[in-house]
Amino acid sequence: MNDRTNRQDAIELLQELGLKEYEARSFVALARRENGTAKDISEMSEVPRTRVYDAVRVLESKGLVETQHSSPQVFRAVSVDEAVNTLRTEYADRVSSLRSALRGLEPPDGVTGEEVTHEVWSLSGEQGITSRTQQLIEGASEEVVLVIGHEDTFTDRLAAALQDAKDRGVTVIVGAASESLRATIETALSNVEVFVSGLEWLQQSSVPGDTTEISRLLLVDRQAILVSSFTRNGESGHEQEQAVFGRGFDNGLVAIVRRLMATGLLSEDDPIGQLADRD
Fold it and tell me: Which residues contact 98 (CB under 8 A, 6 or more apart)?
């Protein structure tokens, strides 16, 4: 990746984190040198000189730039690590404020907060599905049963969530689509039962032009389930993850998957093998 590409990527990411274009360009320009005047910044960033002062003033208020009040004024960017930590804190604060604002919203007139006992929803996109997976595991109080069919699904973040659940007393059982994946999971997790699933349809199945592979089956507290799959287009190579999420003790989808997820265990003493007996 060349310098020009790095600069453009940095500018775009800074904008995604809340900076305006001129502010992002000015910061990137300063980050590439020890210090600089407004003229220097303008020449390197292609930001009009008259707008540099406004941009730098905002950056200074955010703790990203320091000013030397000489004639002419000289500016310098804080270190990369300090800038990243500052932006991370600001982003976290905004997310926290957003959470509070959204939770404070009142339902429309006539809408009550009745408890939902049965529901089935579809999800699309790896980020949203991963977030829902994390949320379900973090909210587990009794049992987490997870069968992983796609190696990329088992991330450090997922491993941490599973280990945390185990450490707080939740029963955690993980199935893997292959022996190599099982070994990887066993290495990452402590005191967690891991087995090779006997669900043959976890492996890739193809239709003309597309390849589909189950990425995860998740059952939490014998009440909520998430099933997701990757579909890869044979021509474009584009991958799309889609999922179905269901909740409710009497939900037929949950009852079926509880039985399916027992496939592959070798011993009748395995706790997951007794799932069907607890319906």
Answer: none
Query: Residues 6 or more apart from 140 whose CB is under 8 A from it?
Result: 165, 170, 220, 221
Residue identified by tokens 């409710």 is 248
Render pLDDT for 256-277 as a digit per residue (tens, 0 to 9).
666 677 665 544 444 544 544 4
Q: What is the gyration radius of the CA atoms in the chain, in angstroms?
A: 25
pLDDT averaged over 10-residue windows placed end to end, the chain, 279 residues: 83 92 96 94 94 95 92 93 91 88 75 64 87 94 90 91 96 90 93 81 58 85 87 72 79 64 53 48
CA distance 112 to 144: 31
The one-letter amino acid at 39: K
Q: Phi/psi class of residue 114: alpha, beta or left (left: φ > 0; alpha: ψ in -120 to 50)?
A: beta
Instruction: Give the pLDDT confidence of 161-191 residue by residue, as tens digits.
Output: 999 999 999 999 998 888 999 999 999 999 9
CA distance 188 to 185: 5
Phi-psi domain of 15 (left: phi exceeds 0; alpha: psi -120 through 50; beta: other): alpha
Tokens of 55: 């941009």
